[in-house]
């Protein structure tokens, strides 16, 4: 080892238990003279050697390993030849200093990065407007955006309100995007007064204001609509390659990636559903499912399919795989839906319930046992 070897290199060899006696002497001399900040910098440098430093678990393990190895090597029994060669009266002081720094680092890291907790979803989303992206939560009432005749207001209940006041045509036609992550939901009152509620893992693309002969928006995932009536300006929802045309009504749409088609359920009024050249008019308590260019119409209890907007999971003869997909989106966990047994579920649950309580109720209802392994729901063999 060259005399001017870098401290990080010496430290890494020390952690790897590959130091020679000369290298240990050199490093311990540094430990004895370095101040606390220098030691912290050295430890941080060592942590940055982790290949996946963005992984919190990897960082935690790295810090734990540093603490364990320093403890083992600095307080090892004198029979060890290398340690005996370099040990001095100052070693205990050096050891205490560096372990103090490491312990403080561990405590700070664990405070800043607590173990991942699986909790129910909440009001959280992001809004892209005028080339900028804002994170939305259930904060206080206020004005998020006010420019070019447009005002966007945030409410404490997880709603944003769009108001267009003398906006020019270019501004009015500009598209905005409201997007909810897994574990999130959000509501928006559009400039025409229509209300849209987005479920977890969904997206709504809409113009700042509605001008022209129609009001058109685009949806991915799941959304509930309460459309303001305007016979002169039909409201159109484009979703999964299909279009829904309404004048004023309440309905639910769902078309998540991986789902088998687009599902539209009418609660009130009437809608025209178009898919691959096929058109059908829905009446209340009817549902249309479009998949592979085919559409299927059936009678349902429509309120069941909007139960999520009222804080409830309502599974009425729903396949277990679909149930698990819904839980995965709402609780932001992983699940291998295709591995679920072919069984349908009848169950009503609060969307605020603890995930373990939910899995226990599903286990009782199905006879199968489900567990959480980290961030994943697994079926017990």
In short:
With 381 residues, this protein is α+β, with helices and mostly antiparallel strands.
Describe the structure.
It is a single chain. This protein is of the alpha+beta class. About 30% of the residues lie in helices and about 35% in strands. The protein has a 19-stranded mixed sheet that branches. A hairpin with a 3-residue loop joins β5 (about 150-155) and β6 (about 160-165). α3 (about 35-45) packs across α6 (about 90-110). The longest helix has 22 residues, at about 90-110. The chain is extended and about 85 Å long. The two termini are about 55 Å apart. Mean pLDDT is about 80; it is low at about 50-55.
Distance between the termini: 55 Å
Secondary structure: helix percent: 25-40%
Low-confidence stretches: 50-55
Number of E strands: 24
Shape: extended
The percentage of residues in β strands lies in 25-35%
Number of distinct helices:
9
Q: Let me know the largest β-sheet.
A: 19 strands, mixed
For the residues shown, what is the average pLDDT?
82
Query: What is the C-alpha radius of gyration, as a whole number of Å?
Result: 29 Å
Quickly give the structural class. alpha+beta
């Amino acid at each position: 080892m060259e005399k001017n070897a870098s401290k990080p290199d010496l430290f890494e060899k020390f952690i790897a238990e590959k130091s020679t006696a000369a290298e240990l002497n050199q490093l311990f001399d540094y430990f004895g003279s370095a101040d606390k900040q220098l030691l912290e910098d050295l430890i941080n440098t060592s942590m940055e050697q982790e290949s996946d430093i963005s992984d919190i678990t990897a960082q935690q393990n790295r810090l734990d390993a540093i603490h364990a190895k320093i403890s083992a090597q600095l307080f090892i029994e004198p029979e060890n030849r290398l340690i005996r060669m370099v040990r001095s009266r100052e070693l205990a002081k050096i050891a205490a200093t560096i372990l103090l720094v490491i312990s403080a680092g561990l405590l700070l890291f664990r405070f800043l990065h607590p173990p991942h907790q699986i909790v129910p979803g909440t009001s959280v989303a992001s809004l892209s407007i005028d080339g900028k992206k804002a994170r939305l939560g259930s904060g206080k009432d206020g004005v998020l955006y006010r420019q070019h005749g447009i005002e966007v207001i945030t409410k404490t209940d997880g709603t944003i309100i769009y108001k267009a006041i003398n906006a020019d045509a270019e501004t009015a036609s500009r598209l905005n995007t409201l997007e909810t992550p897994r574990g999130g939901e959000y509501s928006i009152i559009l400039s025409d007064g229509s209300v849209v509620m987005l479920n977890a893992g969904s997206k709504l693309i809409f113009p700042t204001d509605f001008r022209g002969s129609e009001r058109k928006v685009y949806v991915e995932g799941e959304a509930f609509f309460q459309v303001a009536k305007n016979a002169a300006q039909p409201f159109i929802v484009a979703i999964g390659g299909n279009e829904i045309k309404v004048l004023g009504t309440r309905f639910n749409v769902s078309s998540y990636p991986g789902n088998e088609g687009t599902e539209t359920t009418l609660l009130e009024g009437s809608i025209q559903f178009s898919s691959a050249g096929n058109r059908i008019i829905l009446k209340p308590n009817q549902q249309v499912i479009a998949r592979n260019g085919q559409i299927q119409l059936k009678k349902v209890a429509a309120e069941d399919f909007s139960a999520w907007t009222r804080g409830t999971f309502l599974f009425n003869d729903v396949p277990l795989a679909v149930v698990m997909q819904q839980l995965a989106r709402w609780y932001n966990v992983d699940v291998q839906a295709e591995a679920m047994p072919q069984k349908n579920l009848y169950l009503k649950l609060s969307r605020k319930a603890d995930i373990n309580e939910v899995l226990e109720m599903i286990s009782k209802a199905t006879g199968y046992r489900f567990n959480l392994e980290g961030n994943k729901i697994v079926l017990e063999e």
